[in-house]
Amino acid sequence: MAKPRSDSEVRRQRPSKERGSASRLPASALADGPLWALSPLDGRYGVHSEALKPYLSEGALFSYRVKVEAAWLLFLAEHPEVGSKIDLTAKGRKTLEALVSEVPVSAVEAIKAFEKTTNHDVKAVEYWLRDVLEGESNKVKAHIHFACTSEDINSCSWAMMLKDARDEVLLPTMNNLLSTLESMSHRWSNLPMMSRTHGQPATPTTLGKEVSVFAHRLQRLKEQLAEIKPEGKMSGAVGNYNAHKVAWPKLAWPEISREFIEEKLGVSQNPLTTQIESHDWIAAYCNSLADISTVAIGLAQDMWGYISLGYFKLAVKKGEVGSSTMPHKVNPIDFEGAEGHLLMARSVARQLSEKLPISRFQRDLSDSTSLRNLATMCGHALVGLRSLIKGLNKISADEKRIHEDLKDSWELLGEAAQTLMRKYGVADAYERLKSASRGKQIDAKTLHSIVNKCTDIPDVERKAFMKLTPSSYLGFASELALSLTKADKSRDVSPKKVRHKKGGKR
After folding, report:
1. 198 is catalytic
2. Got the DSSP string for 296-318?
3. What residues pair up with 231 in beta bridges, in sequence order?
4. ∠ CA(43), CA(44), CA(50), 5° rounding?
5. Active-site entry in 106, 198, 324, 490
């Protein structure tokens, strides 16, 4: 019989709190830096996504709310009728104008402290603004957040935030990617390459033309993203201007709201809403980023594939390791990383585009939580696109390898031969070439023999065909590689400049 264990032995083997957490660092050792971030966008990839923080972070949301609240109070104070009830001082005006221009980080931190008491983020902004305008009259303070519901402030804030994030970060990144692709398509516009349809050898192309296809697609998608008009509302509790009309029954509040949103905030008005702005434009924004991500994923996968075929060489950086056990490895990690981030961006984007336009009756709060993940969507898209650009800048074409893959593939000219024969009425031209080449690798002699037996082809065209090689059978590939980028650039849509400065120094 086993000897009974003493209480002390049992305690030593029982997983106490201390023993259960032995694999973790003590709380005192945990820092607030990126190494301990819960999201990789703020941790491992923080340096690559930080450009979005002034626009899409929690602090940015507070900052933009302050801008909207301050701009609304200024706008009302300047209105010929409403302004008669607001005796804003020169000092107060200067304070508000400064906040519209830039919200300091200290202000955002103070508002966050207010929220601990209010448990309401927008109300915290209102109370903080009252404190900032402490020297102003009660008439001024009474018009802070005048006739507004939280969604009036939030919808305008999100419209400005996403507009600025797009114009200042996402579109410039897209332009960088497009510039890189254009340079590649020009550089390799005349470099013959074997195509692969279904993964099998197919009609030759040029490397530059294949890159140009992606440039063309991404250019169009960039234009679509740039053309989306962010929308906000300033129409009160359920979008009817009920309180506005009670206070000032003779004023055309829908038009006043439009003037404020479009002329002062620089975004568009959604004139018909419930309590919340309908988010249809945000769904379009999400779907646009999802479409961009989809095409960029295809580009990353194709680049990965060409590297595996040996068509591209990867730059070797001193000190880098490709494998913990295989010293020779140089891996296409930038393209693989880009694919992973872009898949995440697309997944979040599609989810948000389906959820955000749906709200129960006049309002439910599920959109508030969802909206905060727009930063996740944009963050992964940004890191993915930057990783793609980095990868493209690290590859060089192995022209010798590409040429070797193509030079002896005379079967690829079977298409040309049978098309020429069809021109002169040879009804079984396809069958003749199929019999000679399907599933086989034929040489120039075999191909020329088939064409020479076709007496219907004039001598001059037969001789011209004999000069054709797999490397010269390119159609207009070279011209297409150059012409498409020119056409795309001619209809480029440049983002409009934002009318206000970025929120808060970061």
Report:
1. yes
2. HHHHHHHHHHHHHHTSEEEPP-T
3. 268
4. 65
5. 198
50 burial type by CB count under 10 A (0-12 exposed, 13-18 middle, 19+ buried): middle
**Nearest of 43, 42, 71 to residue 57 by alpha carbon:** 42
Token pair listed for 197: 């349809």
Residue 276, both tokens = 């919340």
For tokens 């404190």, what's the residue? 131
67, burial (CB in 10 Å: exposed 0-12, middle 13-18, buried 19+): buried
pLDDT digits (tens, 9 = 90+) for 7-48: 555 445 544 444 444 456 555 555 677 888 889 999 999 999
Is 323 catalytic? The answer is: yes
- pLDDT tens digits, residue range 140-181? 999 999 999 999 999 999 999 999 999 999 999 999 999 999
Question: Which residue matches tokens 């106490």?
Answer: 16
DSSP-derived pairing of the beta strands 231-232 and 268-269: parallel
What the chain holds in terms of domains, given with CATH numbers, is 53-146 (1.10.275.10), 159-246+265-316+330-398 (1.20.200.10), 414-467 (no CATH)
Phi/psi of residue 269, nearest 5 degrees? -90, 135
Q: What are phi and psi of 203, to 5 degrees?
A: -45, 130
DSSP secondary structure of 18-80: HHHTTTSPPGGG--SSGGG-SSTTTTTTHHHHGGGHHHHSHHHHHHHHHHHHHHHHHHHHHST
CA geometry: angle 361, 362, 368, nearest 5 deg: 105
Q: How confident is the model at residue 483 (pLDDT cuts 50, 70, 90)?
A: confident
- Residue 403 is predicted with a pLDDT of 96
Residue with tokens 């309590």: 275
Residue linked to tokens 């999400």: 286
CB 267 within 8 A of CB 159: yes
Number of Cβ atoms within 10 Å of the Cβ of 19:
12
- Out of 16, 84, 137, 323, the active site residue is 323
* pTM value > 0.85: yes
d(C-alpha 55, C-alpha 168), whole Å: 9
Is 263:272 a contact under the CB 8 Å cutoff?
no
With beta carbons less than 8 A apart as the criterion, state whether 194 and 406 touch: yes
Cα 156 from Cα 163, distance rounded (Å): 11
CA 84 to CA 25: how far, in whole Å? 62
SS3 of 367-432: HHHHHCCHHHHHHHHHHHHHHHHHHHCCEEECHHHHHHHHHCCHHHHHHHHHHHHHHCCCCCHHHH
The C-alpha R_g of the chain, in whole angstroms, comes to: 32
